[in-house]
Specification:
Layout: E1 9-13, H1 20-32, E2 41-45, H2 48-57, E3 64-67, H3 84-89, E4 94-97, H4 100-105, H5 110-122, E5 126-131, H6 135-139, H7 143-154, H8 160-163, E6 167-170, H9 184-202, H10 204-209, E7 212-215, H11 220-227, E8 234-237, H12 244-260
Parallel strand pairs: 1-2, 1-8, 2-3, 3-4, 4-5, 5-6, 6-7, 7-8
Bound molecules: 2-phosphoglycolic acid.
Length: 261
């Protein structure tokens, strides 16, 4: 297993930012920032073009690497796409699947998410499946039903053994890149629901072991209160992960929250 729920799990999604020299500079700074490596689990998620070099620089480091997306086929005539074996090839352990930007801007659906998760697992990659509601859905009281459908359809056909190898990230769309964050209560409510849905379908062991991340404007100032919540095991950080100092600060706050839980 490449992860545990005994330590906070902090992943930095760099989205479409950073050239290779910028990416290398960032991981070197992270290295110097003494993240508290033994007390948390760290994953950096650079753009595809920087994966190889970041992986070379991080060789021997406990910081792991993820990709932002992949295709569900193993190879083929799919111009512009990247396949799971290619991600393994450049040192990825994790892969983000169904990020809301992919769903909203590139037409991804629960069905494609499900196919990608299956392929990722076949190739020994850990999928980080992103789910979450829009502002309109939240205002109409549809948060839980939206999240429920995303879990049911995204994990369709997967048995408990496979679900154990998946990380779920709850990312309310209205909180992503907007500066708005779900309150710890709002986030905890949905995280608890996700855990109960996993328990119902796959049993208590799967549910209690599951890592459920929160994402959406996570910053040093809100990390502690979010991660203190019972069902929040870590953070998927976008904007604030682009700067080594703020990522390191988030890590320190996450470790502190876990120590006090
Ligand atoms: P944000 O992005 O932290 O910039 O809101 C989070 C994400 O998209 O995973």
């Amino acid at each position: 297993m490449n992860f545990t729920n005994e330590k906070p799990f902090i992943a930095g999604n760099w989205k479409m930012f950073k050239t290779i020299p910028e990416a290398v500079d960032m991981v070197q700074k992270l290295h110097d920032a003494s993240l508290g490596l033994e007390k948390a689990q760290f994953v950096v998620i650079p753009p595809y073009t920087a994966l190889n070099e970041v992986s070379r620089v991080l060789k021997g480091s406990p910081v792991q690497i993820g990709a932002q997306n992949m295709h569900w086929e193993e190879q083929g005539a799919f111009t512009g796409e990247v396949a799971a074996p290619m991600l393994k090839d450049v040192g990825c352990t994790f892969v983000v699947i169904g990020h809301s930007e992919r769903r909203q801007l590139f037409g991804e659906t629960n069905e494609t998410v499900n196919k990608k998760i299956n392929t990722a697992l076949t190739h020994g990659l850990v999928p980080i499946m992103c789910i979450g509601e829009s502002l309109e859905e939240r205002e109409k009281g549809h948060t839980i039903s939206k999240v429920q459908a995303q879990i049911t359809e995204g994990l369709e056909g997967l048995d408990a053994e496979k679900v154990l190898r998946i990380i779920i990230a709850y990312e309310p769309i209205w909180a992503i890149g907007t500066g708005l964050t779900a309150t710890p209560n709002q986030a905890q409510e949905v995280h608890a629901f996700i855990r109960s849905a996993l328990a119902e379908k796959h049993g208590n062991d799967v549910a209690s072991y599951a890592i459920i991340l929160y994402g959406g404007s996570v910053k040093p100032e809100n990390t502690f209160s979010l991660l203190k919540e019972n069902d929040i095991n870590g953070a998927l950080v976008g904007g604030a992960s682009l700067n080594a100092a703020s990522f390191a600060e988030i890590a320190r706050e996450a470790i502190k929250a876990y120590e006090e839980k």
